[in-house]
Amino acid sequence: MEVFNSFHEFPQRFLDKSYSLGMVPTMGALHDGHLSLVEKAISENDKVLITIFINPTQFDDDKDLMNYPRELQKDLEKISHFGENIWAYTPNASEIYGEHLESKHYDLNSLETVMEGKSRAGHFQGVATVVEYFLKTFSPTRAYFGEKDYQQLQIITHLNELLGLSTEIVGCPIVRTSDGLAMSSRNALLTVEERKIAPQIYQGLQLAKKLAKDYIYKSILDEVHAFFHKHSELKLEYFTAADPSTLVEFEPDEKITRGRGFIAVRLGKIRLIDNINMS
Ligand code: PAF
Known about the structure:
This protein is α/β, with parallel strands linked by helices and 279 residues long. It is built from 11 helices and 9 strands. A hairpin with a 2-residue loop joins strand 8 and strand 9.
């Protein structure tokens, strides 16, 4: 593995691309979910570039940005095991943004105005800005993103088309711990007690999926709200079932088995999201 702190440090052999390049953009605090993306990228490309950059413009809350886990040395240690065809890029903000730490503006259409977009103003514009930078700077053959951030994956797929880039955007399944909790860098911020409670998020999603076979959306919404009312440490921010590509929410009287269920909850100070295929 080789580590580059700046684009200018990449040797010429990196830039003459006679090989396929897989890119795994991350904000660090790497867990098995990230490592599964790296493994898939390695299996499908000659070389793999992992970017580790905590992107300030995608945080709508300064405290959240400040508390985001920073574990660069541990991260590099984890990916060093993947061998010599791995590069890590760990830029600083000025390399990407210059003097103005601001997002660009993209037409992300209605993909941006629902769920995470509603709760986190400007979040996806920040994500799009940094992902455009990575895609345009390195022109990877493929770029890998987890379905844990499913809305982000749809937005990046849209962005890639909007910008007319040739990278293939590859979505990868959610990786869960044995108790069902979706892997996330934020899990490290949970207290021991909160960590025990957190798997109930996935139980709520599984309940919705089970009910979707027989009931319309409105009844499922009622049941999911009742479930989280009972598990009151988990503050439900939203549960939404939506079309998997357009993210348009179902009507209350529709069956939702062809959709995806999305959830955001607060557990103590930590906000967690998850989703499930309803079919
Ligand atoms: O999913 C993430 O870790 C980030 O949103 C991404 C895609 C690396 C952009 O900062």
